[in-house]
């Protein structure tokens, strides 16, 4: 019997995890695996790019978990600089173009994995394509930004557009490089992935680091100088001088191919899959990573949450299923952690606005505590905000802003959300205690106590 | 109507938390609260004493969360240096002795809280009471040890007897002070709260810190010099020179009073309570902290697990119930974290030997990972061992040995144990990921994947 043919579209986390897992479960004469990647790298950590830009880590090689050669040595036929330009699902083939030669041809499949990732939001502004305007999504973006910062053009003034997690990580990189940084955000506070009261803590900390934070403000144009390079970023009634501009506006699912092929997309434009990561209604088409919507277990809705950790899990699930095993991806609870210099930021579950949008009634509790016993050296402050459903007391979400030792505490809440615990149940959790690691009541437990009291109306 | 009378025996974490919580819920004309403490301090962190001895934190005042005066100012009548010498449960009074004046009298109660704590194990060895032999359980112990170390007698050689968490924390303190340290342990490895294979990692790390670790060895005597002070610790066939000896042999429930009064005790000698922390069979007698056994939710047995974090929770529950509210302490999963210098040690759930003793059949998975993305500065190695039940895949326990960022990851497993998750469910947990905080697969998830594969027989 001829080998089955697996075609993977996209050579980063989800696609190559799927390919690698399927390869481990099958022999080459059972399954032939071909992966098409239009760029020049496979299996890289896009999340590491801001740290490369900031000089914290080396790049780009260090950010590549596995090169095309390494994948090939493991029995995966990786075709680099090769773009998939069309899907013929009925005919079970993809159209591919070699970006070097321009040559086009068909490639047949029995199983198709769509791992096309996401593309950065790039508003159609005057000047947006000028030299000096940078993204931070690909290793090529990273190289261009590193070169620009090394060049140190002009007065070393940078503007970051967008204060979500990509924006604040870019701001950190620029500060580390000694640049003067302005961050422009259209929301009322940085980190719109937090409630505004928690975002305000991030703003205060960023301001304290010497970062200018401009909120409630839309960028209207990128101004260029006589040399055609970026000179400033314009907002209503003001210009912010800039030798470098970094776009940190987030990403959208890259699903043009899927849309043309009539595959089902959610409201964000992300592909819709079943729990086995099979595209809904298509027995032999799978999708994972930044191009899909995932089930949010707290709200019961699908959402677009582009994160490398999800992409890897999706790839693992797809590869297991394609390889003849069985696995599912049950969903997410919305956990995210990031930092800007020594400020740690974390969230999981629903924000207040999200809870309201779901029709949920809730109580909130916000507490201050420390990362270690108060008397222990290095104890750093943190603020924990917790949302719990009225009546039932079910945990709905947690947000944490603090310093060292703050962010990963959100994991406790992520597990509690997954297990659908109440905040009252959480007050009794047997979390690790010793003075170098926690106060006798861990900050998450302090928040749970306060939230449980609020649920009871105390 | 006359006020009800609450008598608290023991002025540390459990007792004073109970008193404080009851005070917040009731008015003084509803509830009169008297607490008897035979020592000189209230509400102190015994867990901080090794760090005081090591010069990491100041003491003793910094280790006192609330002084007798502060408790009195909040409406709790604290009687210091006053020992409760007998309980008359039928007559609803306690016998108390003023340790200054020697005066004895009765004190009536409507509610009685027993928070008598634990006493250190002190084997009946020749020389055990010699000057230079120290405990680390009370602030007075801490003061005596700090004075001895400041004095820096002799060659600054110390022997720590016992390599449990108190022993290893004491060893760290002595190393920090520049003393030459030998730790003597009768088990095969240090940290008998871990499986031997994980304990071996602790031994290697301690040896690397210059600590001499002597295992499988019983101490037979403490040798004294002509001045009557400690000179050496004797084991079979060998003497270990010592200018200071620290006893780190753990503690036993202090329940002599309870035993005399006929209250129910478990196999460890700890008091047995219901989930509301009421002593079984006694409507108005409560107990909490290091003098009780707690329900281990994983094995279904009661165990003696003396930890400040449990004591505080017990006090909170007791105070709520005495104050007219309702609360329960559902039990523990056996979480403990500690460190020796920069080595972090954590466990939760059952060890292999404990699982076997419960008749459980299990698989194990042991993995190596890092605290941050491998390419991110400060990524430190850690080893995670996971136990899962055969067949069901239910998580049974986790042990972690590593460096910075290792120990508190055990909290994820503690919540998963509480929620009775399977290791397969854990593989999908939505834990926080960003390069400064975790590899794309958190070490706990890597262990869960390996354990889930072992459950399936892969």
From TrEMBL, chains A, B:
One of its GO terms (molecular function) is oxidoreductase activity. Keywords: FAD, Flavoprotein, Oxidoreductase, Redox-active center. It comes from the Bacteria. Its cofactor is FAD. Residues 5-304 form the FAD/NAD(P)-binding domain. It holds the Pfam family Pyr_redox_dim. Residues 338-440 form the Pyridine nucleotide-disulphide oxidoreductase dimerisation domain. InterPro entries: FAD-bd_OxRdtase, FAD/NAD-bd_sf, FAD/NAD-binding_dom, FAD/NAD-linked_Rdtase_dimer_sf, Pyr_nucl-diS_OxRdtase_dimer. The keyword Metal-binding does not apply. Belongs to the class-III pyridine nucleotide-disulfide oxidoreductase family. This is Flavoprotein oxidoreductase. It comes from Streptomyces klenkii.
